UniProtKB/TrEMBL annotation:
<dbReference type="InterPro" id="IPR033904">
    <property type="entry name" value="Trans_IPPS_HH"/>
</dbReference>
<dbReference type="InterPro" id="IPR044843">
    <property type="entry name" value="Trans_IPPS_bact-type"/>
</dbReference>
<keyword id="KW-0808">Transferase</keyword>
<protein>
    <submittedName>
        <fullName>Squalene synthase HpnD</fullName>
    </submittedName>
</protein>
<dbReference type="GO" id="GO:0004311">
    <property type="term" value="F:geranylgeranyl diphosphate synthase activity"/>
</dbReference>
<dbReference type="GO" id="GO:0051996">
    <property type="term" value="F:squalene synthase [NAD(P)H] activity"/>
</dbReference>
<dbReference type="InterPro" id="IPR019845">
    <property type="entry name" value="Squalene/phytoene_synthase_CS"/>
</dbReference>
<dbReference type="InterPro" id="IPR008949">
    <property type="entry name" value="Isoprenoid_synthase_dom_sf"/>
</dbReference>
<dbReference type="Pfam" id="PF00494">
    <property type="entry name" value="SQS_PSY"/>
</dbReference>
<dbReference type="InterPro" id="IPR017828">
    <property type="entry name" value="SQ_synth_HpnD-like"/>
</dbReference>
<dbReference type="GO" id="GO:0016117">
    <property type="term" value="P:carotenoid biosynthetic process"/>
</dbReference>
<dbReference type="InterPro" id="IPR002060">
    <property type="entry name" value="Squ/phyt_synthse"/>
</dbReference>
Amino acid sequence: MTPQQYVQQKAVASGSSFYYAFLFLPAPRRAAITAFYAFCREVDDVVDEVTDPGVARTKLAWWQAEVTKAFAGQPTHPVMQALMPHTADYGIEQRHLQAVIEGCHMDLEQTRYLDFAGLKGYCHLVAGIVGEVAARIFGQTDPRTTEYAHRLGLAFQLTNIIRDVGEDAMLGRIYLPVSELQQFDVKAHEILKRQYSDRFTALMRFQAERAHRLYDEAFALLPDADRRAQKPGLMMASIYRTLLREVEHENFQVLHQRIRLTPLRKFWLAWKVQALGRM
C-alpha cells in the first residue's frame, strides 16, 4: 500500500463528516487535506484506543519525534510521507502538527475543565489549529480567514462534545465545564451514571446555544474574498450544525446513544453548499 492509499483508506474508514467536504476539492488540495486529516486521526486514535495511559504517552512522544524528523526530511510513517510533499505549498508548519499532538496529550492528563476558558484552550489545539491548516489547504488568501477558522473549529468541537457526552463519560471524561455543571446543579456522577434530568437538559441547551452563536460568529468573520475557496469548511459547518439541531430535536438524549446523520444526508448537505451555495 502506498502512503497515498494508506491515508485515503484512513479517511474513508473514519466515516467522518470531513470526508464529504473533501470530495469536491481539486486533486492536489484533496490529497493534502486527506493526508492531514489522516494525521489527526492517527494521533487522536492513540488517546481513544490505547487503554494504558503510559503506552499512549509513549506513542504520542513517538509522533512528536516523527513530526520533527519529517520536517527534517526523514519521514518514516506513511501518513507523514503522504503529507510532507504538501507542507510547503499550503503553509503547513511543524508547530501546527505539534499543537494537535499537544491537545491529545491533554486528554491523557486532564478529564475535567474548571471553566469555559480552560476548555476553549483545549479546543483550540485539537480543533482550532486543525481549522487553520484546513483553511490554508482550501485556498486562504486573506489573513482574517484564520480567525474564522479558529472560531469554526471551536463550534465543531463543542458540537462533538455535546454529541459525545455519554461516550466520553464511559471513558471517565466530562468536557462540560465544572463551573457550568454547578450553575445548572448537575452532578458529575449523574452524567457518569447516564442519569437524565431537566437540569441536564437545561445544561445541554445552554451548550447548544453557545455553539450556535459560535457558528454565526464564524460565518460573520469569513472575508468575502475567501468565501468561495472556503466552501469545504462551509460544507462541514452545514453537516455539523445539522447534527447539532438533530441532537436538539432528540432533546439531548446523548447519554445512552450517539446521534448520527446518515452518509446520504451528509453528502446531500455537502452537495447543497457546493452546487447551490445554501446551508
